[in-house]
Design a protein that fits this description.
single chain; alpha+beta; 5-stranded antiparallel sheet; 3-stranded antiparallel sheet; 18 helices
Length: 475
């Protein structure tokens, strides 16, 4: 494809695997009603060669140099490939340029900018190339100059967390906070307050432990879990809460077994997370999935389990925070099977797994510093980071409003001791007769003093003056 016929999007660096390229061609062709194998053949790519080394980094001609596709077909493949790469964001940053930062098609200053990104725009960094970063900003991908990007979350690889042995089920008394820290939830409390309050009353003890381990605020720890869960880890029948994702099962198994897959599973080709359908009988009627019915989720999962156990486990989200099975290593397990056994055995594993997931995604520092927009962007993507951050703030504020009275009841401060001012009582008023004699006595004393002073006025003048100053000083 010549540059003149190239779509306006960015040139994607060679950071994608053979499987990701296969997926991009498949979903792009499906969206446009085409055959992905024909598209691959048209550009000279052998499907079997790619499939033989699915996890290897693609080493063929760059996507932008492939001939044989129309401009719209090429743009569709590029769009789907970016969707595949978005699953492996390396770190989150933000634009640090008050006058804005150019988003370019290639890592070079002589290329026409795709957009001018405003100061503090959040960026999902997918790759680093010299002094340039390949990023996703909102719904656009491109290159920005690295010197003008503030690294809000450190670009560290995700190390496997230590795998802990399975523990016996934890009793509610251990999970819950002490009785003195139990919260009283008003009958008129709204849904947010009730959800986070009940979550705290059931699991506040363990939440405090995890918060202490990660050096984050316990209230915020509860808010994070409340925002990502319903407060439940099991269904009414005692089985683990799960959600089976048809499109992920396709990625894990169906792409290699398409006739069987599409006989039993279906999903929307444009918005892959929508219109999930299934049927146990390949000739039977289709049934809708995701009907807020755990019985249905388990039936679909068990159907997929018959075809491939591991692929089915990798394709479900499970437990209180609905962590995907393909994240088993990030939350400390050796296999998705081990993860599911642990999550079924104890809700404590589910809660710890949620915080291990945050830790593995390098989002703890954002929580510590209350940078919830950065946390939201790293956890759910930058599209609605502000909305998600506000949601977290709402849960935290609701829990704080409940915890404040409880904390006051546990250790209510004693009011300060106020010593009343000492009031010298007035001398008792003498009776009228006694008062008259007192006045007479005072008058006689004054007369005698005046006569004595007059008799020796001159001789004792200086002494009297000294006496007067002593009286003044002593008052």
């Amino acid at each position: 494809m010549s540059d003149a016929n190239m779509p306006d999007g960015a040139v994607i660096p060679a950071i994608y695997t053979n499987q990701q390229l296969i997926n991009a061609f498949y979903f792009a062709a499906e969206t446009m009603g085409g055959d992905y194998t024909a598209w691959l053949a048209a550009v000279g790519i052998d499907l079997d060669t790619l499939a033989a080394s699915r996890d290897a980094v693609y080493s063929g001609p760059p996507l932008e140099q492939l001939e044989g596709l129309t401009t719209s077909q090429h743009a569709a493949v590029q769009r789907e490939l970016l969707g595949e790469l978005f699953k492996q964001v390396r770190w989150v940053g933000s634009v640090n340029a008050p006058d804005g930062l150019n988003l370019r098609r290639t890592p070079a200053v002589d290329t026409q900018p795709l957009a001018l990104l405003s100061h503090t725009t959040l960026l999902q960094v997918l790759a680093e190339q010299g002094g340039w970063l390949f990023v996703i900003a909102g719904n656009q991908a491109g290159y920005v100059y690295a010197a003008h990007v503030l690294r809000r979350l450190a670009p560290q690889p995700v190390d496997p967390l230590p795998v802990s042995p399975l523990e016996p089920d934890t009793t509610e008394e251990i999970l819950a906070p002490p009785a003195a820290e139990q919260l009283s939830i008003p009958d008129e409390a709204d849904a947010v307050t009730r959800t986070v309050g009940e979550l705290w009353n059931h699991y506040g003890g363990l939440l405090k432990q995890e918060a202490q381990r990660l050096a984050i605020d316990a209230t915020m720890a509860a808010a994070l879990l409340a925002a990502e869960s319903s407060g439940r880890g099991y269904g009414a029948d005692g089985r683990l809460l799960i959600r089976f994702e048809n499109h992920l099962f396709y990625d894990q198994w169906g792409v290699q077994h398409q006739p069987e897959f599409f006989s039993h599973f279906a999903f929307d080709g444009t918005n892959r997370w929508r219109d999930h359908r299934w049927r146990a009988d390949p000739n039977g009627a289709w049934q809708l999935g995701h009907q807020d019915d755990q019985a249905i989720e388990w039936q679909v999962f068990q159907l997929a389990h018959q075809f491939d156990e591991t692929a089915a486990l990798l394709s479900i989200s499970m437990g209180m925070a609905q962590i995907m099975g393909f994240n088993y290593a990030m939350v400390g397990f050796n296999s998705p099977q081990e993860m599911m056994r642990a999550y079924q055995a104890s809700i404590a594993h589910q809660i710890r797994g949620f915080f291990r997931f945050i830790e593995a995604r390098r989002l703890v520092e954002a929580v510590r510093t209350s940078d919830l927009v950065t946390f939201a962007a790293g956890y759910n993507g930058p599209g609605q980071a502000d909305i998600y951050a506000a949601k977290l703030q709402g849960y935290a504020a609701a829990l704080n409003s409940l915890r404040a009275p409880a904390a006051a009841a546990v250790s209510a401060p004693q009011p300060p001791v106020i010593t009343p001012p000492v009031t010298i009582p007035a001398a008792p008023i003498p009776a009228p007769a006694a008062q008259q004699w007192l006045l007479v006595g005072l008058a006689i004393s004054n007369i005698l003093l005046a006569l004595a002073a007059a008799a020796s006025a001159f001789r004792r003048r200086r002494k009297r003056r000294r006496f007067s100053w002593r009286q003044i000083d002593s008052e």
